[in-house]
Structure formats: structure tokens, C-alpha cells
Amino acid sequence: MGRIKFTFYALLFLVFGCNFGYALSDNEMLLPPANDDCAGATPLTVNSTEICASGTTATFAQATASALGATCTAQNGADVWYEFTATSTAHTIALSNFSGTPQPMVIVLYDGDCTGLTMLSCSQNNVLNASGLIIGDTYKVKIYFNTTSPSLTNTFLVCVTTPPPPSNNNQTECLITTVNYDFELPNLTWSTYPTFVNHNVVQGWRTTASDQTMEFWQEPNYENVPAYSGDQFIELNANVVSGVYQDYNTPQSTVFNYGFAHRGRQGTDTCQLLAGPPGGPYTPVTTVSTGNTAWSYNTGTYTVPDNQPITRFILQSVSSVGGASVGNFLDAISFTANNGIISPNPFYMDCGDLVASLEAAGTGTWSAHGGNPSTVTFSDPTANNVDISGFSVQGIYYFDWTTEYCTSTIEVSYTGPYPSDPVITDITYCQGQTAVPIDIPVDEPGYTMLYYLNGVAYSNPTPDTSVVGSVTYYVIQESDAGCQTPAYPLVVTVNPGQDPVTDFTLPEALCTSDGTVTPTTGTDFTTGGTFSAPAEVVIDPGTGEINLLASTPGIYDITYSVEEDIENCLIAGSSTVSFIINAAPVLMPVTPLELCDDATNDGVAEFDLAPAIAEALNNQTGYTVTIHLTEADAEANLNPQSQPLFTNMIAGGQSIYMRVVEDGTTTDCYSIEEIQLFVHPLPTISAPITNYVQCDQTDPDANDGIEEFDLTTKDTEITGGNVDYAVSYYMTYADADSATNVIANPATYQNTAP
């Protein structure tokens, strides 16, 4: 806490009765600076670039050593406090423009407020590179003298700048760089001769020389030695043999890349690069000898061993031609390392990239931010080269690479997979057909099908069917993230209308007796049309089958019509055939002809067919009749038989067929009717028949020779028991032969002659 110094002189109170008074001979008040303690921290302007355009002058008059805030050295002669609000994750706090006696200064950076300060880092070389800052947070800075008895007349400029990110836009949290690498600071007044500077007013560099002196050369100079980089360089030995060095935080094994320009002054000078913890032991890294005619630039790598939390690089004079205080020019000294993410940041994953292959330096662990759009999978979370997969949602992802030294973050933009190739089917229309918009289904909601015709983009275009030919659209499926498939062709063809094939044939004429007839169609006949005819013709409109029997004889036009069908590229068309239906004779069923066999009883008899023919014709005239033994012969008009008398050829009877043709027709329309012939065999009478004798007993007194006979009692004897026979009785042979005058009551017959 700062102190207020008061010098008091005698203050005399005189009390005389009720009178009071005082006298103050002198009053002197010496105040410390306003920022002597944490509560009075002076705000610092944050420069948006690495150039210090606006800084604050620090003064230490009456400053005291504050008890707040840990320090990184044992001595604190006096301190002042500052604060700034981070506008980047990395800032540089640098001291420059020193006046007064050079003294060792320490910069300490704290997080938190004055009631609870956490030391983040400190620096003893006038520059503190702060990383891992949170944008918008306010940080405290304490600057103090690393000596017990400082001179408080010193002033210097305090400046907060913003370093640019590396070329790949990664953060600087894990980037280790060299402060004032080409010795351009301090900004010295130009002189042709070297300027000797105490290292406490130099940014970055310190010397091992006991007099703390560094020798700066400017260009041009009296020896005409050009700087390797910029306008200033140093001579390694100012007054005594020495080295220059910088310290780097290396809490874990780190690979440094180094480079430095070296040149002899009066001949070939030699220097050596050493590395190790502050205080040693130091390990030789490289030894360089260079003549005085040109600069040499020397590069290499150094791997920090484990358990070396601070690494010091020293460029030490080995020998010089000019003596202990002459020689070994140095410029452009760079020690850099990156324990963070090396991959470009932001890292963009192109369409279809499903794996982000990232690279980091150092030893650390990969992790994903909790707010990422989806969970992911690391191939090996501890590998420097990691493959991150499993992205399922398009968006911005953040991943950390965390080492003992720092944490760096990379932004990964996941665009998404390529959509599947669109499923395309070429489209065919007929000229003039009503087209519908092309609408190929997308794979996912939010995806879009893009259609291009002649380089012009369309949304669900409707093809033009007025012109015959083919046009080619190109189809692309685009995801909601803008990922597109290749363009695939979709051919739309417009075909001209085709004349239907409607040709068919029918016999020139048919008879109603032909039953049915179906048109014979031509090659490539166009189906789907309609057959039509006048009402007198019974026709099936789909198949064209004509029912001749049900149709009225006459001459008719039969037409097959196909209506216009634009959907199938058909033009309306029809064909017509003239067709005659002739009437066939209409015959009546014939009663079977039956005859009894003659005495030969051989089943053969002569039939008179005239009655049957007349019955079939039913008084119709103008017909020719032929008789045939089989229906097939009748159909073919083969083997006509004699008529009207016809003797059956099959014992017992047979069927014969009458073919009737209308006279005077060219179509010979005919009808066929069956005539059944039956020849019945004669009954066989058992012979001889015994006489039927009775006594005259009905009237014995009369004795008149008349008696009643039951002739039916002789039936069985006559028929031999054949129940199919019927027996009738007659008085004379002639009556029996002619079947006349049958005895009416044979069961009660009385003889007439006594």
C-alpha cells in the first residue's frame, strides 16, 4: 500500500480562560503516484496492431512496494499498477523510452480484482507476451524495480499492443517468438559509431557481461558494415567477452527453430549457441565461424528436454580476431516454437469432406467444445495429427489442443456431405401433350433440385411440347449447406403424332349359319379402338366378333375407329370393310321316322324321306335338299344319297343329315338337320299255340256250344313271357294282318260259332 508522508511542526494550544487559538508554522504533504496500489490502477490504451501508437508514461516518484500480488523475484523496490481490457486473446505489454538510471524492471500480469489476484505471467526483459486472454476481461499489471534501493526518478513508456496472428491465422497462445529479434529497439539517436546501451533499457535481450552493456551498431556506420535486417545490429562483445540471451517458458518438451545472422569484424570470428536452464548447465547447439566480408545466416532446431520449464538461449563469443572487445556481429536472431495448432484456422471442410485432419505441435490433448453442433470422434486425442470424424450437423465446431504450456483453439467449418446423385429418368411426350413440371424428389428436407437448360437455371421447369425433338436439361441436387452433385443430363423427347394401324379384313360374305366371325387384323394393329356396325349387326365393340346368327342378313359397313390419344402419340383414324350376311335356311326339327321290319326281320327297311323333308322345310320353297350319311359330309356337301326313298344301312336304324341350300345364292348358305331312322323288329310268337278248350258249362241246360273265353290268359304263352310285347286279338287273319277290327274285350270273349 502506498504511504503518505507528513512533516509536522509544533502545534501549540494556549488556553487562557475561554480563549482558544493555534499556530501552524509549516505544512508539507508529499504524495505517491495515483497508481501506487492496485485500487488506483491506471487504465492503459490497447493498440489494435503491434505498433505502439498510444502509450502511457510511467513515473515512480514517491512510489512504494505494494503488498498485493505475487512477484517472480525476491526484490521489489517500488511498484506502480495498470490495467487494460483485452480485445484479443493475446497482447504484448512493453516498456520503452527509458530515462534516468537504467535499472532492472519486472512486469507482472494478473487476473482478477484487487481482492483476489492470480499471477498469470511475468517478464524481466521489458516485454511480456500475454496469451490465453479472454476478450472483454480486465487484467491488472504491476511494474516494479527488481532491486532494493531503486532510483525513483526513472520514467518510461508503457504500451499494450496486439500481435498479429501467424500466417495461418492460428492464435498466438502457444506461439513462442523472439522479442526484438533484429535489435531495432531501443530507437537510438543515429551515430556512425557504435552506441553502448545498458541491457535494462533493451527489450528482450540481456547480456552476460558484468557491466550489463550491449554494443549497438547502426547503418550506415564508419566501417560500412550493413545490417543483415533492419537498421541496427549488435556486436557481441561490447567491453568484455560475453554472450546475449533470452529466456523462454518451456514447461514441456518443445522443438525450437532457430536462426541468426553472424559476421566477423576484423576477420573470421567464432561464436557458439548454447541452450539450457538459467544458470546452466548449457548444452552447445552449434558453433559458427564467419569472415568479415558477408553475413552468414545459420539455422537449425533444438529440442527442449523434459523437466526444463525455462530454457535460455545464449549466443556466446568464442573468439574474435580483433580481441576480447572486438568482433562477432549478430543480427536477426530468432528462436521460435509452436506448441499449438498448426493447421490453418479457421479450417474449412469442403463439401463431401467428412473427416477433418488437424495438426498440432508439442504434447497435448484434443478436446471438443460442449456447444458444438454435434458430437464427433477423435482418431487419437493425444496424437499431433488427428482425424476428427462423425460430424452429423452442418455448422461451426471448435476444438482445443491443450498442452502444459497453453491451450489453442481452432474453428472448423463443417459443410456437410455431398447429396446423393439425383435419380433421373428421361421423359417422353407427344407433340401437343400437356406437360407437367419436372420435379425429381430430393433426398432430405431442405435440399434443392436445380435444373439448367442452355445454361439458364430453372425451378421445376415445364417442358415445351409444341415442337418435335429432344432437349437436355441438367440436374443438380444441392444440400442446404450448398454442396452440389455433378450435373446429370435429363433428356426430354417430344415425339410426333402417329397414324394408327386400323386395317382389318372380313370374309366378303358369310351366312347366318356360320355362327360367329372375328375380323383379322393387320401387322402392328393399333389396339384399344372400337368396332362398330349398324344396329342390325350384333358385334362386340372390343374384339369385333360378329354374332351371325343373331344378326339380320344384309350388306353392312363394319368400322374400326381409334380416337386421338395425345398421351400415346396417336392421331385419330379408322378403317371400314363392307360385309354381307346371307340368310341360311331355317329348318324345323324333324320327327324321327320309324318302321317295323318286314318278314325278314333283319333290321333294314326302306324309308320314304319326303315327309321328313317337308316337315323340316315347313312349307318353305326355293331350296335344294341333299341327304348325307354323316354331318361332316353334309357340311362338306360330300356323298349325297338317293331320296326320297332311302334304305337304312345300319340294322335297326341310323341318323342321316339333310343339307338344305337356298337356290340362286353365291354363298351357298346352308342348314343341316338330322333325320333319325328307326327299324323295329317283328315280335316272335311261340309256336305252336295250344288250343283254348272249354266245356260248355256256363249254361249246361242249353248246351249251345257258346262259352266265354279269357283270351289274355294266352298272352304269356304267345309272347314267351316278353313283357315288351303287347298282344291283340282279331276274328280273322285279314283283320289281324291289317290290325283292324280288334277284339275289344279279349278277357270276356264269347265264341260266335257254336
Task: Briefly characterize the structure.
By secondary structure, this protein is mainly beta. It is 3% helix and 38% strand.
Blueprint of the fold:
Blueprint: E1 5-8, E2 27-30, E3 42-43, E4 56-59, E5 79-85, E6 91-99, E7 105-111, E8 118-123, E9 127-130, E10 138-145, E11 155-161, E12 175-176, E13 195-198, E14 206-207, E15 213-218, E16 232-235, E17 243-249, E18 255-263, E19 269-276, E20 283-290, E21 296-303, E22 310-319, E23 329-338, E24 347-349, E25 356-359, E26 364-368, E27 377-378, E28 385-389, E29 395-403, E30 407-414, E31 427-430, E32 448-453, E33 456-458, E34 469-478, E35 488-495, E36 504-505, E37 509-511, E38 516-517, E39 520-521, E40 530-532, E41 538-539, E42 546-547, E43 554-562, E44 573-582, E45 593-596, E46 606-608, H1 610-617, E47 623-628, H2 631-636, E48 640-641, E49 645-647, E50 653-662, E51 670-680, E52 708-709, H3 715-719, H4 733-738, E53 749-750
Parallel strand pairs: 3-5, 24-30, 31-35, 37-44, 45-51
Antiparallel strand pairs: 1-2, 4-11, 5-10, 6-9, 6-11, 7-8, 7-10, 12-23, 13-15, 14-17, 15-16, 16-23, 17-22, 18-21, 18-23, 19-20, 19-22, 25-28, 26-29, 27-28, 29-30, 32-33, 32-34, 34-35, 36-39, 38-42, 40-43, 41-42, 43-44, 46-49, 47-48, 47-50, 50-51, 52-53
- From the N-terminal CA to the C-terminal CA, the straight-line distance is 191 Å
Low-confidence stretches: 1-28
CATH class of the largest domain: Mainly Beta
What fold name goes in the CATH topology slot of the largest domain?
Answer: Jelly Rolls
CATH architecture of the largest domain: Sandwich
Largest sheet: 7 strands, antiparallel
DSSP helix fraction? under 10%
**SS class:** mainly beta
Could you give the count of β-strands? 53
Mean pLDDT, to the nearest integer, reads: 91
Q: Kindly estimate the percentage of residues that lie in beta strands according to DSSP.
A: 35-45%
CATH superfamily of the largest domain: Galactose-binding domain-like
C-alpha Rg, in Å?
68 Å
> What is the 3D form?
rod-shaped
How many domains, in number, for the residues? 7
> Tally the helices: what do you get?
4
